[in-house]
């Protein structure tokens, strides 16, 4: 899965839960500024305290954590 596809999947996950978010970092810069190489997706998420655990579990199920990354 490439970076744009990963960003789209995260956006879909957040959108399906009605969670406000913003894509940030190099990926956003490619859209709104000067293109550059990136291998990650930066996201700011606004989520209620009650929904955090379920959201984290959903993300980790789709995108495994890479130790020491």
Give a concise summary.
The protein is mainly alpha-helical and 69 residues long. It is built from 3 helices and 2 strands, in the order αβαβα. The protein has a domain at 40-69.
Sum up the overall morphology in one term. Answer: globular
Uncertain regions spanning at least 5 consecutive residues: none
Task: Please state the CA-atom Rg, rounded to the nearest Å.
Answer: 13 Å
What percent of the residues sit in helical stretches (DSSP H or I)? 40-55%
Find the structural class using helix and strand composition: mainly alpha
| Structure annotation, total helices | 3
Strand % is 5-15%
Task: Tell how many strands the DSSP assignment holds.
Answer: 2
Order of helices and strands: HEHEH
Query: How is the largest sheet built, in terms of strand order?
Result: 1-2
Give the biggest beta sheet. Answer: 2 strands, antiparallel
Terminal-residue CA separation: 17 Å
Mean pLDDT: 80
